[in-house]
Write a structure and sequence with these properties.
It is a single chain. Helix content is 48%, strand content 13%. It has 489 residues and is α/β, with parallel strands linked by helices. The strands form 4 sheets. A 7-stranded mixed beta sheet has the order 1-9-8-7-6-2-3, sandwiched between helices. A 3-stranded antiparallel beta sheet has the order 10-14-11.
Amino acid sequence: MDSSALQLCSNLVPASYLMLGDDALKSVSNVIKDILDHQKLPTDGIDENLIQALLTQLSWLDSNNSLSVCGAGEREGRVFSKLVARRHFHLAHGVGRSGDVTAVQPKAAGSSIMNQLCTKLMLHIIQESGVRSAKSCIIVPMATGMTLMLTFLTLRSLRPKALYIIWPRIDQKSCFKSMISAGFIPLIVENKLEGDELRTDVEGIKGEIERVGADAILCIHTTTSCFAPRVPDRLEEIAKLCKEQNIPHIVNNAYGLQSSKCTHLLEQAARVGRVDAFVQSCDKNLMVPVGGAILASFDKSTNDDFLTKIAATYAGRASATPAIDLLITALELGVNGWKDLLRKRKANFIYLKEELKKVAAKHGEQVLETPHNPISMVMTLSTLIGSNEDQKSRVTELGSMLFTRKVSGARVVPIGAKKTIENFEFLGFGSHCNSYPHPYVTVAAAVGMTQGECDVIVKRIDKSFADLKKRLSRSPRDETAESSCKDAP
């Protein structure tokens, strides 16, 4: 309803009431106009009812919601379930077209506006997070690993002779499988132990380039956010090397958008060298359901830029769900809401680490010094070490206890674990190197975590550790006697 329609109600209610109603309508309209005009995050988050009004009005622009539509094709935005239709705000056409995941659709002006607007808001979030020089981004309706694979497949057409991807080791399966699934051979560069930290072996990367030749290398695939004791790669040095050798540089920034240290590394790497694209997870950074990634670049969007080529590599239309979720979340947050989340995350990291140090000292363990990792931290489990077999079972038992006690996301890593992925065998899997000197548990202070959660995590780690050590301290005779008592009638 607009002002002219409201005037038709003058014979129904007093004019003074209509004036108040008209002011209310105009205030809602002005908020929506401001968003569409500036195409940036609002300074402060806006009310969910206004966001719903925006999405409802956008849905009216799609052909399937027209009162007079008569669809003659096989895909006309028909949705059987009213519950499903409401879940998607009646935006049923998805995004993109068969040749480009970012293309606008003639039958879906509203969905196309929604997707394009969301893309601009995501670029604004990336810039506000610290990557000020980022110039363009696209929303990919796949999680990080699949988005990396799509990126590598796009590079194939630009470097047809390339067979290899240089990859500083990180023990995370999806980023490794993204290279294998794209048809390339990973050249794994082991990390160097410096103090407690595992850091990039830049000389090892140079050695691989010399061994196979720059033309045979599709790209160097680096990582920012990761589980300690590994730390973000030396992006600046690698970016310089990529620029010198004319080798593309793809960065897995999975949950690095929430860390000022990770975003600073990206910004500096682009300033001094070459970064072709960087990928970040939607769910890990912006707290939306799993299923989307944001692919960003330091190049302006043109008809021939790298992100445009990646968008054109995607086959078919795509789900609009990630973009809808991101748009809603971004508008509810606003710039101040997003920055407040980042500030709280950083404070929680400091708090959690200090509290974990108290638990470590209590049990004769230590929290390792990994100052270059701004999200994850490590507590040793060295007092659990017995024989090699005992060490592994004891450490993994602690992990099982934590999971049973509803501590999700904590990772326990024994010494010398083995893992085979696509015929590649990793020794010491989980620790990012062949022989890390300690078994350990790692936890992360991620965006959205509360101080209360930090307290509960530390308390349950403390209790689980104490219970396990108490059980292990019993002699086999004690355990046999206890078992016999339980079995007695």
